Description:
By secondary structure, the protein is an alpha/beta fold. The protein has one domain (20-146, 188-237): Undecaprenyl pyrophosphate synthetase, CATH 3.40.1180.10. The protein contains seven helices and six strands, in the order E-H-H-E-H-E-H-E-H-H-E-E-H. The structure holds farnesyl diphosphate.
Amino acid sequence: MLFKKKNRKSELDMSRLPTHIGVIMDGNGRWAKKRGLPRSAGHQAGADTLKKIVTECNKMGIKYITVYAFSTENWKRPKEEVDFLMNLLMSYLKDAERTLAGENVVIRAIGSRRELSEEMCRQIEKTENFTKNNTGIVMNIALNYGGREEIVHAVKDIFKKLEDGECNIGDVDADMISDNLYTKGQPDPDFIIRTSNEQRLSNFMMWQASYSEFYFTERLWPDFSVKDLHDAIIEYQSRDRRYGGV
Ligand code: FPP
């Protein structure tokens, strides 16, 4: 027989959790459309789902979660939707100081700050400072984030160091690139979940995803539940990660 069906376990193995999970939270618009609601209602419901999933990941002992909240390409959406998402993100950050921070979550924003409003940049700094001494899960909110932009940003920083004589061309290696990304000091994501049946990376963690396991589900993000998260992790635990070895 060519393909042997693997014995899939149906229970979570708490000793083999992914250290870092990435989430591409897709399907908010379709969720709203199905209910005859405006897209903004889908994003609002998506933000509520996110809160539940981060709380659960933190409880389980997962160390890092990176969520794709707004990409460098999302500026192409209608102004009304962009404004709504920015306001939602702002209130999410403010609210997180009361809720997630109290749950010991460390909140960080990754992405370029250049195009963000001053008010947003101030709020990001405030929330980051407020939560930086927490010891629970690190939540990276990818905001105005694009994997290619992140790599360009890293390359520019490395060129600057070369120009300033802080390092030599021979020192440039994969570790140096990793150390100049927004996720500096963090492990690469072991597992990336994308909802709503789209099966692509869409410029998310391009460098860091080299050896990530991918999981695609039909579930629309606002419907993604704690059980769906557990099922996804059970599937992750059935994967054989070889990193190019045998
Ligand atoms: C993709 O769904 C989702 C986004 C572009 C935004 C993700 C944002 C959230 C889940 C809520 C806000 C996040 C935070 C951190 C507060 P889509 O709109 O492309 O859905 P569609 O493909 O069904 O149209």
